[in-house]
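Following up on my earlier message about magnesium ion. Here are the inputs again, as you asked, copied directly from the submission form:
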Amino acid sequence: MTVSIDQGQEIVEYLYTAERDAREVIKVTDKYPELTIEESYKLQDKLLERRLKENETKHVGVKLGLTSKAKQLMMGVDEAIYGYLHEDMLCLEWEPVKYSDLIHPKVEPEIAFLLGEDLEGGHITAEDVIKATKYVAPALEVIDSRYKDFKFTLVDVIADNCSSVKFVVGSKWLSPESIQLDSIGMVMTKNGKVEQTGSSAAVLGHPAEAIAWSVKELSKRGKGLKKGDIVLSGAMSEAIAFGSGDSIVAQFDGLGSVSMFCK
Ligand code: OOG
Ligand code: MG
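Thanks, got it. Here's what our run produced:
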């Protein structure tokens, strides 16, 4: 370990309160440049424990991040990551997201997978993911890095639960077998103006491939995906900034649309 138990607790407290108070902070690696990816996943676990307890919420799923080249380039990293979704992050389409609860939010279009079976182990394939998936649905993820200017290293962003803050799942749920999951075109608008276009192929070639990757990563740490989990497979395009009064809609070929309003 490059940080002591006390220092680890201090980092968790620092990131937990930054989210709670919607306050940006200096990135952790400025103070602890030696921190490793394995350590930062351990810090993420501690942060999540704290968050579950304090917010009286529960685990509802997993999110993948930086699964597309567009996002990796945008963030200056070259690896995918994962974090966790809690029930208090789930927003309904008709429920506005409150800008005053957030720091510098961005939104990105994703495909959500709802699992009908557990998935674990180091040999899971995209086919196994599709078999274990009950439904796929259009989704928007709101990310709100706690770090100043939304700038971080891979180690920083993992400790910060991969910038997670809110997500919206659309109401049209389809069987994964009823749609060609690797070629879903997407258009995202803000207040009616096109801001991003993309394809699900951008997500590691196939979103189910991205989920298979995450199962392998999780299994290295003795974890897996569970029946009932919602899994966000990662942004299909760059994320866009939004503010109070903005309306976001992402339209996915064959999957329908999902929208969000920020008040
Ligand atoms: C990290 C989270 C990335 C995605 O879908 O790529 C992510 C960030 O960009 O702040 O959720
Ligand atoms: Mg995302």
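One observation from looking it over: Residues 5-261 form a domain with the Fumarylacetoacetate hydrolase; domain 2 fold (CATH 3.90.850.10). Hope that helps, and feel free to reply on this thread.
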